[in-house]
Amino acid sequence: MAEQIPHEQWAAVIEKDGGPISYKKIPVPKPGHDQVLVNIKYSGVCHTDLHALNNDWPAERKTPVVGGHEGAGVVVAKGELVTGLEIGDLVGIKWLNSSCLSCTFCMQSDESLCQAAELSGYTVDGSFQQYAATNAAHAARIPKGADLAAIAPILCAGLTVYKGLKESNARPGQSVAIVGAGGGLGSLAIQYARAMGLHVIAIDGGEEKGEACVKLGAETYVDFTTSKSIVDDVKAASGGDGLGPHAVLLLAPQERPFQQATGYVRSKGTVVCIGMPAGARVSMPVFDTVVRMIQVKGSYVGNRQDTQEAIDFFMRGLIHAPYKVVGLSEVQSVFDLMKENKIVGRYVLDMSR
């Protein structure tokens, strides 16, 4: 028997820059001809959601807009052109809600670069609502029996760091430094790196985050709040030769790490920029970058194939996202903790409360 779809639902809506976000009732959307309507069960809360709330970036944000882009749920309705998904299937709503699928970027599996891309919780309504519409082609396919609360953070945080690790070109047996390792992205990056055969150097601040990083699989932890020289400490942690890690993943929401990374990455290593601090710039000494053949690159969200690979790691039990479940009505308190840099792991919102 088909689920009765209500006309109204609870949602967390961005109505003004800086918040607070509004918890209110809004109409349930109807799926377009190429969309599915998803009954969201759980949605992760990402630092990008805070950037969206604050309108930090130069990209234009829709206002008002329902936040969120890590939604896991069940298909309850679909448009007439949708194939490959049925009512009752488990799916995920990601940051990339849709793309044109016909431009040069989409045809080369770089759909996140599509000029017509729509972004969940930013340019279109996202997953901080009980029912959300998304393009069927871009909906993440979640295997039956998956824990939807646990898999929600994989849909952005997991996918993003997995893609970044692939972009780093680090090979099994090599080392990677993860900056911001104690946060939601970092906690997953450690595990994906370990699962991919890499040695992990975790960089973050405070004893609690250090303990969490080591528990998740980091071999060494560098505390930037007590380190006298980040460059020296990271190099010392990179193995017997002390030449630095082969790759660096920059996940931090602050600018300073983006200025430090080329100082400790190994010659011919790769620095991958993933975090996007508001107004931040990347700088590096040109001479050192050239003669040491350092690569500095950005990595955005993964494509549809990257998504399924990231989910596969999770389904095989290799990734255990540390998370805490709170109700949708508590999302503003999660943002407040984010602002104070007090979150270890990930918060997941239960849409039923």
UniProtKB/TrEMBL annotation:
Pfam families: ADH_N, ADH_zinc_N. It comes from the Eukaryota. Its cofactor is Zn(2+). One of its GO terms (molecular function) is alcohol dehydrogenase (NAD+) activity. PROSITE patterns: ADH_ZINC (PS00059). One of its GO terms (cellular component) is cytoplasm. Belongs to the zinc-containing alcohol dehydrogenase family. This is alcohol dehydrogenase. It comes from Cercophora scortea. The lineage of its organism: Eukaryota, Fungi, Dikarya, Ascomycota, Pezizomycotina.
